[in-house]
Automatic annotation (TrEMBL):
Keyword Acyltransferase: no
Protein name, per record: O-methyltransferase
Gene Ontology annotations of biological process type: methylation
Comp. bias regions, Basic residues: 9-18
Domain O-methyltransferase dimerisation as annotated: residue spans: 84-158
GO molecular function terms noted in the UniProt entry: O-methyltransferase activity; protein dimerization activity
Domain O-methyltransferase C-terminal residues, every copy: 182-390
Length: 409
């Protein structure tokens, strides 16, 4: 039975590789879909200015512009909270420096002094100490005394080449392309469209496709692959492949999702539909896993057509595009799907307004970087209905993401 949803448009070439835990399926979506990731803006940096010094000039609760009383607040606490939020930009660059200097890799075998670590990395000893001290204030390192620091659980996520690593994601989100685009964010809100072309001379995927940006594009691809790993295991364990013979991973990059399904079900044949440079990576990954005999990589344009399948995977694809473009992708799937086939959409889902919500902050990233968006359930349902689908199941898959299974109508 279909769960009851909660209350809560130009053709383009497909883009380069992107994607800007034991699961208990739910009988119906929760009233609130609050993801399990912490907020994107970390807390922990305290402002140097003591907000209490401002208290004397901030305690008057009279709204002089309208001559009415407003609800009393705690000005000192409010000021501290805003300073803390503003400090998020500093924390983001602390994360970047930790990742770029491989601080977590250096500390993987145990605590080091800032001087010992600086000697290994070739960085300035005192500046390295100041960075590590600030990182300890944000819970990324722990201080052991005598200028020695160790990794915390959060800090371990910045190690390279380990399962669950967020190092590449940190370097991408705080790197040149993203920060240049964020500088134009107010104008993106005014215009209702990303300003990446103004910031970078191209949209974000065209930018990554340029040969001179190959290193940055590779880092982005690695970040998206790492992020994919946070949700793939949960999605694979939740979706049923009974009656499914062919699975197509639409915009599937290196094919991690479909290949994981194929490993779980030896009867499945899988395909990845993506750009030529991306599907080459998928072929290599399939060979690495010994699945080449059941796997096919298709270089193509999902805005033009998709191959026939029993199950389509759309993992973090729809949020990159506006409603008109998403409808094209979904209609192409509807036209090609085999009888009785399904679509599995994996995305963040915006919950109740006013509650802490990873999805709303991710939505701001989409506005800054692409012309896509995150959506709530009502918005998803309207999009699905306009494309010939209806949502039949909704369940969390981990990492703040949800699986939404669609049936053809």
């Amino acid at each position: 039975m279909e769960p009851e949803p909660q209350s809560t448009g130009r053709r383009r070439k497909p883009k380069p590789t992107r994607r800007y835990s034991g699961v208990v399926p739910l009988k119906e979506p929760p009233r609130r879909l609050t993801p399990d990731l912490p907020p994107l803006v970390p807390h922990g940096l305290r402002p140097i200015l003591n907000p209490e010094r401002l208290l004397a000039v901030m305690t008057d609760t009279t709204d002089t512009t309208r001559g009415i009383e407003v609800e009393p607040s705690d000005p000192a606490a409010d000021t501290a909270a805003v300073f803390d939020l503003l400090g998020g930009l500093v924390v983001a660059q602390i994360l970047r420096a930790l990742a770029a200097l491989r601080i977590a890799d250096h500390l993987a075998d145990g605590p080091l002094t800032a001087e010992e670590l600086a000697e290994r990395e070739g960085s300035h000893p005192q500046a390295t100490y100041r960075l590590m001290r600030a990182a300890a204030s944000s819970g990324l390192l722990s201080y052991e005394g005598r200028r020695r620091f160790a990794l915390t659980g959060r800090g371990r996520l910045l190690r390279s080449g380990v399962p669950g690593s967020l190092r590449s994601l940190v370097l991408t989100q705080t790197g040149h392309a993203h920060w240049q685009a964020w500088a134009h964010f107010p104008e993106a809100v005014r215009q209702g469209a990303t300003q990446t072309r103004k910031a970078l001379g191209a949209d974000i995927f065209e930018y990554f496709a340029r040969p001179e940006n190959a290193d940055e594009a590779a880092l982005f691809a690695q970040a998206m692959g790492d992020l994919s790993g946070l949700v793939t295991r949960g999605a694979v364990s939740a979706v049923s492949t009974v009656g499914v013979s062919t699975v197509v991973d639409v915009g599937g990059s290196n094919g991690d999702f479909v290949l994981a399904l194929m490993e779980a079900d030896p009867q499945l044949s899988g395909q990845v539909l993506d750009l030529p440079h991306a599907v080459e990576g998928a072929r290599g990954e399939a060979a690495k896993r010994g699945l080449s005999d059941r796997f096919h990589a298709v270089a193509g344009d999902f805005f033009a057509e998709v191959p026939p399948a029993d199950l389509y995977l759309l993992k973090t694809i729809l949020h990159d595009w506006d409603d008109t473009q998403c409808a094209v992708i979904l209609r192409n799937c509807r036209s090609a799907v085999n009888e009785g086939g399904r679509v599995l959409v994996v995305e963040t889902v915006i919950g109740e307004i006013g509650e802490p919500d990873f999805a709303t902050r991710a939505d701001m990233t989409m506005l800054a970087m692409t012309n896509g968006m995150e959506r709530d359930l009502d918005e998803f349902d309207a999009l699905f209905a306009a494309s010939g689908w209806r949502r039949s199941r909704t369940y969390p898959v981990g990492g703040g993401y949800f699986g939404m299974e669609l049936l053809a109508v």
